[in-house]
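Thread: Modeling a multi-component assembly for a lab meeting

Hi all, long-time lurker, first post. My supervisor asked me to bring a structural picture of a complex we are working on to next week's group meeting, and I have zero experience with this. I have the sequence lines for every component (997 residues in total). Could someone generate the structure of the whole assembly? Inputs are pasted exactly as I received them:
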Amino acid sequence: MKTLLIASLLFCGAAFAASPSSINNDDSCDIKVGPAATLLLPYFEVDPDGTSGRTTLFTITNVSRYPQIAHVTLWTDAAFPVLNFNLYLTGYDVQSINLADVLLRDVIAPPSGTTSATSPGALSASGNGNLRAPLDCAGNAGVVPESIMSAVRWALRTGIVSFPNFSCNNAGNVHYDAIGYATIDVVAGCTQRMPSDPLYYTNDLLFDNVLIGDYQQIGAVPAGSFSGAFDAAGNPMVHIRAVPEGGGAGADVGTALPYTFYDRYTPASRRTLDRRQPLPSTFATRFVQGGTPGFATNLTIWREGIGTGTCATSLSSARILVSDIVRFDEHENPFAFGSCSDIEAVCPIFLGATSTTNTSGSSYPSMGGSTDVGGWIFINANNGGSTTYSVTQNIGGAPVTTNARTALAPAGSTTTAGPRPSQNWITTSMFGILGGNHITAELDAMPLGNGCSPAAFMSPTSFSPLGAPPIAPAGGVFVCPPGTTLTNGTTALCNGTNVNPQP
Amino acid sequence: MKTLLIVSLLCCGAAFAASPTSINNDDSCDIKVGPAATLLLPYFEVDVNGTSGRTTLFTITNVTRYPQIAHVTLWTDWAYPVLTFNLFLTGYDVQAINLYDIIVRGIVSPPSGTASPRRHAQSEPSGGNLRANVDCAGATAVIPASILLGMRNSLTTGVFNPGAGTTACSTAGSVHSNAIGYATIDVVASCTNLLPSDPNYYATDLLFDNVLIGDYQQIGTRPAGTGPATALDMAGNPMVHIRAVPEGGGAGSHVSTALPYTFYDRYTPATSRTIDRRQPLPSTFAVRYIQGGNSAFATNLTIWREGSAGSSCASYQNNNDMAILEIVRFDEHENPFVKSQGIGCTCGYPPDYRPATSSTSTAGSSYPALAGADTGGWIYLNLSNGGSPLYSITNHPSEKTTEGPATTPFGTPRASQNWVTATIFGNAGAGRMTAELDAAPLGNGCTPSAAISTGNFGAVPIGPAGGTFLCPPETTLTNGTTTQCRGTNANPKP
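Re: Modeling a multi-component assembly
Sure thing. I ran the full set together rather than chain by chain. Output:
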C-alpha cells in the first residue's frame, strides 16, 4: 500500500533501490518460519467441559544443543496475561503442550512437568552460559493448584479475573470456551514475571533465535457452527526473531528495528530493549464460502492490544478498531461495507486482541449480487495507533524513543496520534464437506509488507479522499531500479519503493 | 549450523553483529509468505484415473490493480519441464487451478481459460509492465490431445514424447501410477511459450515485480505408502514465495543483485547467471514428526530439491539420484538416530538419495529408524547434494559468475537449494486430522553450506545457521563470559 509518504520517499527510492540487500541470517523485518526468540500462538480455544474435544496443542523444539528455558504466557482475548509457566528444554528437546491438560486437568507437560533434572541427549550440551546460575528450574510446576486454574479458566471465558490478591472485571470477552493467545519467550531463568512487567526485559529475556514451534487446533469448526466430525488444522506458530541476535539477559543492544513486538511493555527509557521483530498490519487472504461442498473460512486475527496489560487498559483491547476490509470475489468485484461505497473506505469494524470469525459473518463485507464462492480479502488491521506504542527516532545519530507522530504514523489518522501502525497476524482456516468427509486447511495470510513498513493509508472520514492509493504490496507498484524502465520503455508508472523510512 | 568457515568469519562477526539491519521490504535472503515474483508448488500428485479423487489445487492472486501474466510450468519429479501455460490475471484477480483439469481433462482454467479482455472497473485495463501488444487473447484453454497424452505419460512413466516435432525423452521422470511433479509460476511480460529452462526466457520474458501470492491444497492426501484414504483428507499450505531482490524493471532487465546465487541460476544465460534475481532457497531444515501410537499418527515429508539442468535427456536421470548430505532424527528424549553416515564420510554407509520432488513417510526406509517408545520428535535435514558444476555463483564486485566445482565461501561450489513441508496425519475417534506446514529452514539461501554434524561423527553441532551463541559487541552471556560466543549471522560475499 502506498502511503502519503511516497512522494517524499520516491526521491530516495531511486538512490536506494539497488543498494546491496542484506544477505545475512536474521537480518530483516520479514517474519519467516525459522529459529526465533519468541513464538506467538495467535489463538487458542479449549472446550471447558472437554465434551467436544476442542483444544489447542502446541509444540516447541529447541534446535540448539544447549538447554533453553521457554517462558509460556497465556493471555486473554483482551491481552490480559493470566498465567505463565516455564518449560525447561534440554538441547534438541521437543515438548508438546495440550492446553486442555493445562486448563482442564491442571497439569503442565504431564506427567511431571519439565525440570532441569532431565538428562540431556547424546548430542546435547549440559550447560548454557546464557542461563542464570544457580538454575531455579528444579521446582518447575508440573501440577498447578485447582484454585489457580479455576480462576484462569474463568478469566479466559468471562474476562473476570479473581485471583487472591487481584481482581478485574473487564479482562476479556465472554464466551463459552476458554479463548486467548500465548507467547513463548527464551529466558535466562525460570522466572514468574509476566511480559507485561518491565522488569522482565531487564532481568529475564534472552535474545537467542533457537526455538521453532507449531500448533494444531483440534475440533476446529467454521465459526458460529458446531462440528460434525473431529477436524484438526495445523500451522507453524509465528516465529519472531531477535534482531540483532544474542547477548545475556537484559543486554541493552541497539537495533535498527523502528519498534518491537513487546515495546509497549518494555521500560519507558528503553522501548526496543526486547529487539523482537514487529508484526505487519496489512494482509491479503483467500476465502471460500458457500457452494455445494459447504465451504467456509475462518479468519483468526491476533492484534496488538492497547495499553500495558492492566485491568484498566484491557477494556480497550477487547474491542479494537480495524482500519479497512475490502473483499474481492473471483471476478475482481470489490465489496466494502454498505455505508462505504469507495474501495478505500474506512469502516467501523472492531475485533478483540484475538478472535476467529467466519468470513460469511457480519465482520466482513457481504458479496451482494455475486454468485462466486471464493476470492480474497484485503485487511488493513491497523487500529490507527496508540500513545502506548512507542517508536525509535534517530535524532543526531542517537536512537531515542517517542510516542509522537513519526514517519511510520498512520497517514490521515486523527482519532489517535499514534506513532506507527499497530501489529497484527492473520491465519486462514478453510473448511468443506465432500462426500460426507470433512476437509480442513489452515495457513497464514500473506502480509503485504513487514513490520517496518509505514502505516497503509487510513482516511480520517468514512470515505477516502480523491486519489487515495490503491491496494497493493507495501511501497506500491511499480518499483524501477536505477537505469531501468518498464517493459514499455517508460517510467511513468515507476511510483513504488521498497525503502522503509526511519522514524 | 556452524560451518568450517566459522573460524575465519568469527573475527568479522563481532564487527557485523550489530551493524544496521535492513528494514526495507523485500530486502532479505529469507523466504517469507508475501507478494513474490515466483511461486513454487513443491509437489503435486494427481490420480489420472480419477477414482480416488487425489489431486492438487492451487490458487494465484494478483494483489495489484495492474494486469499480470502468471507463467505456469509443470516439471516432472526429475526436473524435466513438460508443459507451460499462461494465466492472464486482471488487477486483483484470483485464479484457482485444479491440476486434474490440466493433466486429465486437458483444460486450463475451465470453461474458457484466462484471456486478456476480462477486467473490473477497479483494475487498470492494460499496461503496467506488460508488452504493448499483449498476446494473450488466445491463451490456451484446451490442450491438444497429443500434447496432453505426452505430458501425462511423462508425469507417470517418465517418457516424454508428445510428437509434433518436440524432442522426445525417455528418461524424464520416474514411474508411478499417479502423475507427480512440481510447478513454478513466474511473473512475465507476455504470454510466452518459452520454458524456464531456456536462457532466452530470462532475456525476453521474465519480470521482477513481487505481486503474486498463492496457496495449494492436496486433496485426498494420505500417509505415503498406504492405500487409498478411507476418508477424503485435504491439506493446505502457502506456496513457496520467491521474491525478486531487488524488485522491478522491465522484461530482461539486467540489474545487479547482492544475492550470491539465485533460484533459477542453472538455467540463466552463462554471462548473467543471476539475471533472474530470485531468492535462493536454503538447504538445512528442522521439521517435526509424529508416527505410530493409538491414533495412527503418520508424517509425510515432501521435499523439493534443485536438480541439475539437463545437458541431455539421459542426464535427467541424475535428478533422481541426488545425494542428501545427512538426516538426523531426534525422539522426544533427545536421542539422536542416523541411518547413513553422509556423503562426506567414508564409514561404509551409502548416502541417502532423493529426486527433485518426492513425498515420503517418516516411518519408511528413507529416514533413520525410530527406536524406543516415543511417537514423535523432530528431524534435522541437510539436503545439500554436495554441489554441482552446473550451479553458479556470483563473484563480487565484478558481477561475473563462476561455474563448476570451484571452492567458494559457500562450499564447492555451494549448497543446493531445497524446500520441505510436513503433512501430519492422525485419527481421533471417527474423525481424522491432516495438517500441512512448512519445515523451518535453519538458515537462508545465502548461508554457507553446512558441514557434516556431530550426529554423523562430524565436527559441527546441529543448530541454527551461524551457530550459537552470538554476542553483539560489548556484551557477554548471562554468566558474564564470552567463551561460548562463537556464532555469527554474517553471511559471506562470494
